[in-house]
Amino acid sequence: MKSKLFKAIFLNIFFTLAYSNLFAQKANTFSIYLQTQYSKTLYDRTIYNNQNTIGIGAESFYQSHSKLKPIVSILFNLSLLDDKVLRLETDNTAIKSVGTTIDFRIGESYFFYKKNYFAIAVGPSFINDQILLGLKSSFGYFFPAKHKWNIAVSYGNVFDRYKPSKSDYGTICISLGLKIF
Question: Would the pTM count as exceeding 0.85?
Answer without folding.
Answer: no
